[in-house]
Design the sequence.
């Protein structure tokens, strides 16, 4: 069988190559991932569904994990960050969106892929940039608005600071293995960790008004 050969009823044998074949393989991988999750994804099933052979798949993706990540990236969508007019409201809404996502079937697939990726930094980066769970952009946007409103310190506008809340939520799923984080956990992350961090950052430990006066010599 040729690399991208397919036979349609009532038609002669056709060959797909290049982008057309890659699209067919990715479409098949997306369908398999949606139907069976990462645990049920196999190169054999994807090749059969795409009407091609395993070699054609392996020439484009070196292993099942790489193919699974490529398929997952097709399933994700970008949602504009919330704009409630208040930093606390924005952060809570972003966390609630992420919580719903991580609790969904697509979130379960993401957790499977993260576990399979282990310490492979390149693969983890591909997952994070599409999953919304560690992408800094929406967090920097809402934090930038908060800085403009005087709700947060300008020094807090750093990706590692901006994403603290979502990293803590991710740990609930990845480290603790919860199926869904209770809303009180989200509120605790916001009120006890995130808001104090971004509001106090860069401020002196002792306010000038409360400093002890210097003694004259």
Sequence:
């Amino acid at each position: 069988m040729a690399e991208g050969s397919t036979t349609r009823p009532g038609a002669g044998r056709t060959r797909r190559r290049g982008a057309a074949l890659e699209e067919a393989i990715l479409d098949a991988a997306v369908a398999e991932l949606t139907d069976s999750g990462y645990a049920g994804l196999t190169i054999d099933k994807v090749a059969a569904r795409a009407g091609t052979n395993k070699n054609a798949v392996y020439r484009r993706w070196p292993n099942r994990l790489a193919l699974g990540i490529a398929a997952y990236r097709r399933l994700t969508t970008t949602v504009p960050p919330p704009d409630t007019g208040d930093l606390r409201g924005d952060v809570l809404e972003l966390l609630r969106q992420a919580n719903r996502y991580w609790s969904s079937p697509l979130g379960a697939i993401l957790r499977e892929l993260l576990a399979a990726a282990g310490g492979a930094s390149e693969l983890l980066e591909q997952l994070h940039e599409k999953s919304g769970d560690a992408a800094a952009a929406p967090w920097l946007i809402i934090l930038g608005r908060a800085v403009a409103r005087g709700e947060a310190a300008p020094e807090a506008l750093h990706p590692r600071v901006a994403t603290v809340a979502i990293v803590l939520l991710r740990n609930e799923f990845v480290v603790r293995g919860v199926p869904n984080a209770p809303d009180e956990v989200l509120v605790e992350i916001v009120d006890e960790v995130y808001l104090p961090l971004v509001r106090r950052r860069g401020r002196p430990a002792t306010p000038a008004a409360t400093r002890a006066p210097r003694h004259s010599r």
User: Anything to note?
Assistant: The beta strands are 5-7, 13-15. Residues 6-13, 203-217 have pLDDT under 50 and may be disordered. The first strand starts at residue 5 and ends at 7. The chain is about 60% helix and 5% strand.
